């Protein structure tokens, strides 16, 4: 009987790896603060956690499957097409387990290494998913494939594939260099799709698109401004007559909705309200976990806060968006990669921006004000509780408070 070569539901081995997951990613500190309704008071410091933070279901599932894969195939070569998630400590742990990375970062080209793989090798597809061409090449090589693609991402893919099959161009609100967005764009080429897409980063780029739709700019001008996000052979005059909107799941959700609305208004102005359905489609492809964490941060910011700390990878899109939200509302907001970035009166953090922003991590002294202080804390969907717990410990230590003493107090 031929061995199964493609797995999307793990290996039913969670029990065998649970102790490893708990050891590496659980935090008793976080567990205790949750039991206290997400508030910890110690001395003149009040620390408040967001209601939703850290690992989402999709990330937890992907990490679980990676650990199960190592347990299932202890003697096989195991590869990841790229970063499992945008968390440096997580990816480092997988390397310690002997899992090799075929590429790293946004500029990775793992398909260049596929020729070295064969049917004895196991390849894990990350939570972001992988382009259809990569999966096809892995199947050709006969590799065992473990697919950890997040269910929310798969929902977007189904919508984009449907647009393409109907002859619509997919307008994707996302970052053209991001692994998830590249994988989503590739879905336009599935099962007879037209292969047409245009990626817009933000409302500014959306404005270039709507100006063209309204006839205010030429096709050449649009290609000059947005050519980096266009599918091969893209012809604005031909390919923007019928469009459907989707998004990278980790984008700022309020912006995604505004992008869709701006395109809808432009298409209605161009073709008339009575003809809009023939030229424009928009369905809700917002990831609930991303939305939950952004909503929870907004609720956290309703409390009086002096400082907000956001924990998560600097190349994590959803974490960057949390940092942007906080920076607009609290003067002292700090996006840190992990708990080790806090060392007493000093903090290493990245100013709000983007993963490709030229701004880099900076070090700041005196980040925690003297006297009574209220600190809010949240974390991106790819941040394990162990790193959040370490951040709590370091915040307390910055005020000369031992975490054990703080948790012992009732």
Could you characterize the architecture of this molecule?
This protein is 41% helix and 17% strand. The protein is α/β, with parallel strands linked by helices and 410 residues long. It folds into three domains: 14-56 and 289-408, 4-hydroxy-3-methylbut-2-enyl diphosphate reductase, catalytic domain (Cobalt-precorrin-4 Transmethylase, domain 1, 3-Layer(aba) Sandwich), CATH 3.40.1010; 58-151, 3-Layer(aba) Sandwich (Rossmann fold), CATH 3.40.50; 152-286, 3-Layer(aba) Sandwich (Cobalt-precorrin-4 Transmethylase, domain 1), CATH 3.40.1010.20. The strands form four sheets. The chain has a five-stranded parallel β-sheet, with helices on both faces. Helix 1 (14-25) packs across helix 3, helix 8 (203-213) packs parallel to helix 11 (253-271) and helix 13 packs parallel to helix 14 (317-327). The longest helix has 19 residues, at 253-271. The model has no long low-confidence stretch (mean pLDDT 93).
Summarize the SSE layout with pairings.
Blueprint: E1 6-7, H1 14-25, H2 28-35, E2 39-42, E3 45-49, H3 57-72, E4 78-80, H4 88-96, E5 99-101, E6 122-125, H5 132-141, E7 144-147, H6 151-165, E8 169-173, H7 179-186, E9 197-200, H8 203-213, H9 219-226, H10 236-239, E10 243-247, H11 253-271, H12 276-279, E11 280-282, H13 288-300, E12 307-311, H14 317-327, E13 333-336, E14 342-343, E15 346-349, E16 362-365, E17 373-379, H15 385-398, H16 403-408
Parallel strand pairs: 1-7, 3-17, 4-5, 4-6, 6-7, 8-9, 8-10, 10-11, 12-13, 12-17
Antiparallel strand pairs: 2-3, 14-15, 15-16
